[in-house]
Write a structure and sequence with these properties.
156 residues, mainly alpha, Arc Repressor Mutant, subunit A, 3-stranded antiparallel β-sheet, 68% helix, DNA-binding transcription factor activity, DNA-binding MarR family transcriptional regulator, WH_DNA-bd_sf
């Protein structure tokens, strides 16, 4: 345990910069571990997990363009993943009536079951990686991050 230190005389901007760097290092480390676990334990990737997660949130499906917007990636990235999921029977594409170019992607029952398994493992991994945070720490950190996100939304 670190000893208590007197308040620093450095500017708040420097302290905020250090917090940002710690957040970035933490997120990158967690993401690296999640990618490794997905690859080694399930033979899958984080982008594929993200696509399945988005489709699980929208059981009626999403237009391919909406899916790429939702994930903030290019249509090409999403198309390749959905194609592979479709080949494996985990997803399907349905034509949008009245728009011959648009398709809606959605998970099949097999895809939903596969995602539920992945999602439970993902939750367990995150829980383990963040086990040093108490419920109070989680609530406080979440509230602080919400205020940052709210501010970003106001600026957009």
């Amino acid at each position: 345990m670190k000893s208590a230190q007197a308040p620093s005389a450095e500017p708040l901007s420097k302290a905020r910069l250090r917090v940002w760097l710690k957040l970035l290092k933490s997120v990158n480390g967690i993401e690296t571990e999640i990618r490794r676990n997905l690859r080694e334990e399930h033979g899958t990737t984080l982008p594929r997990f993200d696509v399945m997660s988005a489709l699980a949130r929208f059981p009626d499906g999403l237009k391919m363009s909406d899916l790429s917007s939702y994930l903030k990636v290019s249509n090409g990235n999403v198309t390749g993943i959905v194609d592979k999921l479709t080949e494996e029977g985990l997803a399907l594409r349905v034509a949008v009536p009245g728009d011959r170019r648009a398709q809606v992607a959605r998970l099949t029952a097999k895809g939903r079951a596969a995602f539920e398994d992945l999602a439970q493992h993902h939750e367990d991994w995150i829980n383990t990686l963040l086990e040093g945070l108490s419920a109070g720490n989680v609530d406080a950190l979440s509230a602080h991050l919400d205020s940052i996100l709210d501010r970003q939304m106001e600026e957009d």
